[in-house]
């Protein structure tokens, strides 16, 4: 079907595969809206931690998600700022403890249902690059372009570690490697919307590729799809 604003490009993959960086580049190159769905789960997790709530309680977390306003606002430079109940929490949601908590929060069926409805509404008109862990399988199974990014465990841990170092967060590579391993296992084994590659998705191993190279490949695929 033809969407009013263009294609839906769905990008999934494990932590550290380069989804956010690549998705931003693709959105900039195509003039599309960049939607970081993971940021929405992180925002709920951050709020729960601040309020001292039990992130393992699915009912409490679902109620919290329903009562939480999350806005993704794209800036002139293409970057997206995340607002939690009106507060800019773009940096706060990237802290290690929030990453850990969001992995638990995102496994709750009720939370996923609440946020999935909001994400589906964003995709409806098209002209979006959405990245996460269940975009091609749950949020936008009818996306015109489906991409599954991957990379070696060591490379993904290294990228995550460097990202934290650049933000002044002191943590050892070994700790990050273990965190990535555990995150992979949770994402793949959760009962609701587990991380997996859709049968018709294009898999791209980014281990030895630059973000620019990956983005160019996806843009090429999108242009071919748009001309069909």
Topology:
Layout lengths: L7 E5 L6 H12 L2 E4 H15 L6 H9 L3 E5 L5 E5 L2 E2 L7 H10 L3 H15 L4 E5 L2 H5 L5 E6 L2 H14 L6 H17 L12 E4 L5 H16 L2
Parallel strand pairs: 1-6, 1-7, 2-6, 7-8
Antiparallel strand pairs: 3-4, 4-5
Helix pairs in contact: 1-9, 2-4, 3-5, 7-8
Q: Strands across the major sheet, in which order?
A: 2-6-1-7-8
CATH-scheme architecture: 3-Layer(aba) Sandwich
Number of domains: 1
| Principal-axis shape | globular
The CATH homologous superfamily corresponds to P-loop containing nucleotide triphosphate hydrolases
Distance between the termini: 11 Å
Poorly predicted regions are none
Count of individual beta strands: 8
Radius of gyration: 17 Å
- Tally of contiguous helical segments: 9
> Which range best describes the helical content: under 10%, 10-25%, 25-40%, 40-55%, 55-70% or over 70%?
40-55%
Q: Report the order of strands and helices.
A: EHEHHEEEHHEHEHHEH
CATH class, anyone?
Answer: Alpha Beta
**Fold-level CATH name:** Rossmann fold
The major β-sheet equals: 5 strands, parallel
Explain how this protein is built.
- With 228 residues, the protein is α/β, with parallel strands linked by helices.
- It has a single domain (8-207), classed as P-loop containing nucleotide triphosphate hydrolases (Rossmann fold, 3-Layer(aba) Sandwich).
- Helix content is 50%, strand content 16%.
- It contains nine helices and eight strands.
- The chain has helices at 19-30, 37-51, 58-66, 96-105, 109-123, 135-139, 153-166, 173-189, 211-226, and strands at 8-12, 33-36, 70-74, 80-84, 87-88, 128-132, 145-150, 202-205.
- The strands form two sheets. Strands 2-6-1-7-8 form a five-stranded parallel β-sheet, with helices on both faces. A three-stranded antiparallel β-sheet has the order 3-4-5, with helices on one face.
- Helix 1 crosses helix 9 and helix 7 (153-166) crosses helix 8.
- It is globular.
